[in-house]
């Protein structure tokens, strides 16, 4: 046996790594022939940037060197179930790392059917699961490779092994709009179209989110139901309305109850009202709201109205008649408020989409210089988070600092009560959110600095705000 001509074990490791990446079979064989037990080198993990760890066989796979893999498998029979930590594509600090990945899982993920067959023929575990529960079959579904999925199933793959949070193979196929794969899973393997993930969302929800008319129609015809998710109490129909997709609303509505159809039109109208600022949005909102009112009248279904008015909504209540709706038809501000009232009723105060629309309204008002009204909307949304124990993003709190500094620059004043509320909220977060402690502390210090500046300005200009 030859003795390798390297000064250290590290140099030999680097030599092996470089040779495998280049795909030089002959040189790799010569290097491995210089050691007494080459399998030790084949089964060990080599450290790479960004916490990656992989075997020589995995490197050959990721570089699409099938001939190198074939030589290693046939001659040395390495362990195919060594757990690798890998990333795909060029190195980047923000790359996602996939932990506990097998070579077969990687081969399916890069959609190399020849390598998949090679590995399965040499005994690779077709039901291997990564740290997050992903399987080789999921890799085939992700890429929409029906032939690969069929091959894995024929060789013992378990189609019922789901990723964490019960994320199914059908869901990932729908998310990537792989119609042929969806057809195979549902029509041939009888996958349940109403199986839900841990948030209570089914594949129909994913079809709506990816805006696939074709898959929405397919799933509905296969018995998909329009039930509400656990996490946000929103159904696929409601999401179609929220995403301003009247075409999807029209497709799903015939499969739903009359009340669901009415509320979808109301939510669709509110989505147009609360995301656009032009006359077209008012017209679109009016048409949706009026259709909903007509249906409520026809079927004698009244709205569940709130009994108390809210000052930030100008103490208004939702329109109950077409005549009331006509009066606000061309008024973008009142139409927006109508939309917010609808969203509060249908989505509820804890819903993220509703709370976002409040913040968006505040941002619009700030852009046109109505700072005090803007602050009122943001304070109201902050109060909802506090009332219902909803996590408050440190970036959200930082936006208050931006708004207050803008007010200070433009008007030389900041509402006392509002800044005190925000400071108290940040102090609460300092005790709760250790991960974003520094960000929240910087925001707090910035607000304190603003407060002292306002005091100085007050003395100079005879102002009295703080």
From TrEMBL:
Query: ANK repeat ranges?
Result: 99-131, 132-164, 199-225
- Name the SUPFAM superfamilies for this protein: Ankyrin repeat
Which SMART domains does the record associate with it? ANK
Q: GO cellular-component terms in the record? A: cytoplasm
Pathway where it operates: Protein modification; protein ubiquitination
- Keywords associated with the record: ANK repeat, Repeat, Ubl conjugation pathway
InterPro entries registered for this protein in UniProt: Ankyrin_rpt, Ankyrin_rpt-contain_sf
Keyword Repeat listed? The answer is yes
UniProt xrefs under PROSITE patterns: ANK_REP_REGION, ANK_REPEAT
Q: Where are its TM segments located?
A: none
Keyword Repeat recorded = yes
UniProt family annotation: Belongs to the fem-1 family.
Designated name of the protein: Protein fem-1 homolog B
Q: Which organism is it from?
A: Rotaria magnacalcarata
Q: What is the lineage of its organism?
A: Eukaryota, Metazoa, Spiralia, Gnathifera, Rotifera
